[in-house]
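Retry 2 of 3 after timeout on previous attempt. Resubmitting structure tokens to design endpoint.
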């Protein structure tokens, strides 16, 4: 039991879906998981564990914004032994080729949050990125279902209502696909705890086109995204994961000898 999750050790699966909305967590558990049981209702931030295609999976609400999402992600990774997290969120599109209800996978997440500036003593602009192996499973899962998954950068903003639309316009010019509020923190914490993370978002608002879905749809209609997430985590588990290091990660992280050689004889390129 932690300050914010009332589960006992073992109640939570190694793979966890993370919607911001706790009622989306309930809908996912009731709609997609078999024998789902609620393990926590602290602050009404529901968490459930059940099975999907025979594999244990949990789903935990995170609330809105990086401080709230960081609390749940930290406790899951640090205390409950969670190895894989997939955010299943909503987002606002800032790209002309993306439509309402499309699904975006965040290969990375830029942010205006101060959380990583605080974490790295104000001297590093850390680049939070998705786990490559998990992203690859999501891309394959979407293709197998005939879903057009957009892969690109998200922007994790500390504001939902911005006073600086020109910043969002510039981010669009620099290739950001959509705006949400949690992915950067989740990616950073997964790196810290040697876990895998991916953020999938369904487009609920189109910021350029001025269109939006009703609130009820954000809570209970994002089936394609949830199915991609569940297929990805179960495929990863079946392929030998979840593990701390994804395929394609650097020699320095995957092979200690490589890291030592680089340190001893040739400084890392800057
Ligand atoms: O629908 P969720 O997952 O909460 O995600 C998005 O919706 C909330 C804002 O309405 C923020 O949390 C944002 O990231
Ligand atoms: O525009 C949007 C839609 C969902 N979530 C956000 O953070 N922004």
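Retry 2 succeeded. Sequence:
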């Amino acid at each position: 039991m932690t300050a914010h999750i009332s589960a006992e050790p073992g109640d939570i699966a190694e793979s966890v879906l993370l919607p911001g909305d706790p009622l989306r967590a309930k809908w996912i558990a009731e709609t997609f998981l078999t024998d789902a049981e609620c393990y926590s209702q602290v602050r009404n931030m529901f968490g459930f564990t059940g099975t999907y295609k025979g594999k244990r999976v949990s789903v935990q609400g995170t609330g809105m914004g990086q401080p709230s999402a960081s609390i749940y992600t930290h406790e899951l990774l640090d205390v409950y032994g969670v190895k894989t997290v997939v955010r299943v969120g909503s987002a606002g599109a800032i790209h002309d080729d993306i439509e309402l209800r499309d699904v975006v996978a965040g290969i990375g997440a830029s942010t205006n949050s101060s959380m990583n500036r605080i974490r790295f003593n104000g001297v590093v602009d850390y680049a939070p990125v998705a786990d490559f192996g998990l992203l690859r499973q999501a891309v394959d899962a979407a293709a197998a279902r005939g879903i057009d998954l957009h892969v690109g950068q998200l922007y994790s903003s500390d504001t939902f209502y911005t006073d600086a639309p020109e910043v969002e316009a510039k981010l669009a010019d620099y290739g950001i696909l959509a705006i949400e509020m949690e992915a950067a923190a989740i990616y950073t914490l997964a790196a810290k705890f040697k876990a895998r993370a991916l953020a999938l978002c369904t487009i609920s608002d189109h910021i350029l086109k001025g269109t939006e879905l009703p609130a009820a749809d954000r809570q209970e209609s994002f089936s394609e995204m949830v199915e991609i997430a569940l297929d990805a985590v179960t495929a990863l588990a079946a392929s030998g994961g979840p593990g701390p290091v994804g395929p394609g990660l650097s020699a320095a992280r995957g092979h200690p000898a490589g890291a030592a050689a680089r340190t001893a004889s040739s400084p890392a390129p800057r």
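Attempt log closed. The pocket of uracil (ligand 2) is lined by residues 90-92, 160, 179-181, 204-205, 207 (CB under 6 Å).
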